[in-house]
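## Example record

The block below lists the input lines for one assembly entry, exactly as stored, with component labels intact.
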Amino acid sequence: MKYVPTIGIECHVQLSTKTKLFSEVDNDARGKEPNSCVSPVDYALPGMLPRLNGEAIKYAIRAGRAMHCNINAFSRFDRKHYFYPDSPKGYQITQFYQPIIGSGFVELPSGTKIRIEHAHLEGDAGKLTHFSDYSLVDLNRVDTPLIEIVSMPDIHSPKDAHDYCKELWRLMCYAEVTYGDLYNGNMRFDVNISLAEEDAKELGTRAEIKNLNSFKSVERAAEYEIKRQSRLLDAGEKVVQETRGWDDASGKTTGQRSKEEAKDYRYMPEPDLPPINLSKEFIDAESAKLPLMPDDYREKFNQKISEDILEILLDYPSLMKKLNEIDEKNVKSLSNLFASVLLAEEKSAEYLNDLPPSKDLNELAEMNEKKELSSTATKEVFLKLFDPQMKGRGAKNIAKELGLVQENDLGALQKIVDTVLAKPETQKAQEDFRNGQEKVIGFLVGQVMKESHGKANPAAVQEILRKTLTK
Amino acid sequence: MDIKCEDVNHLADLSDFSLSKKQADALKDDLQSIIKYISQLDEMDTKNVEPTYQVFEMENVWRDDEILPQQADREDLLALAKKTENHQIKVPKVL
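Predicted structure tokens for the full assembly:
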């Protein structure tokens, strides 16, 4: 039987504000000791009052606009109750009834539009590390601001699920609301999947796979679920509505807990946080601060950069920003260098953190354009521009230091040509050339290049040689 | 709604409290009477009433995104936990 898969995705994005959502504590716990970024509010000590971080509201507006979403002027917080050691409060503060971000859409590179149902602000939970008979709790992550983005069930293939997650990641990075480090859980995906027969009016029973943290695992988990559910349905069995875990190593999902015993979260209004009521001016002002988005870059550069290269470079917001800063005439050559040299370089991750000034990149592109650098030398100098040892010296100086500047001075080249032509070992070749043996010109060019220690421009050398020999 | 001793013990368990039999009994009676008192509200028809978020009619109370020193540090807060290990709170096996 052929089934149509329907996939909905909830994505949690950790916001990169300086402080947490409800306390004035460092929100950046990267590389810090467990429980070192905590306050009595995070511990939910009696009488502690959460205080809303205004910056998180601004981040939410930018994130929402990046997804073409309406921003709701009026929003408020609710408590979602559950007992688990990752939450000292015994509830999560979230926006259940009136979220700040309304409906919108995300357009995939293929052109498919995935609608966004809504997105809301909430606090993250602490981190548990499980051991054989106990668990350890680190509360650094408690109440890190999150936006949970809820898609409509518009995704119908594992590939689209992958592309949607990737595009969301790009949008959030370009909107500058998250560090976007997937490995460290800055974005996490819950994927729900159901199958229905073609032409069926209702969706099938869905299974949910929680806490995926890479695009590839989203795609693989969706593929696996489609196969698993197809087999069940083909055999006349039922899909159970449940939460399943994904094991990256085995490439399988396994049942965790059944939704039939789903708990009642006892949602109730959060009385400690007054509602948010934003003016149109406030929303417009924040929306205007949204930086250029991937689509803006696609539109801007589609004539200059091939689609393949553009889609690769779009994964690196800092490179796109740089391409936007440099002189327009250099965009094509530098985008090629970014894609084929920088990203292939072993240290590219380190280099990407600190790009050279635009004027150095422009200088390099112009030297290449004027043939002052061969293409090999251009690549070499290009990488040196990123090298912490060489940085800031400028393309010209580095090229000179490394002796890579090509000799284009016709007078100087003529002198070298004359020296070579005066040498006894070139006499036979000169004669052969005059007798019509075209090929020996290569040998003579080689001799001149050698004499110039590789600095001569080969095309110019050949021209001068021809002129001199046919005089 | 009838509150039983098991309910009190279940709640205590979830909150990681230990209660003596006497305490549990007393809490059971207290909870029972609180719920009975609150249940009077059930007589009201609240079908078209919006839930009350707050009674002060405040809006847009938020703070700047600046890190402030805290009155209690990591060790003060960890000292409140029953058990700790490597600067983390140690809890019974979950899941």
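Chain A touches chain B through 49 residues (CB under 8 Å). The longest helix of chain A spans residues 215-234.
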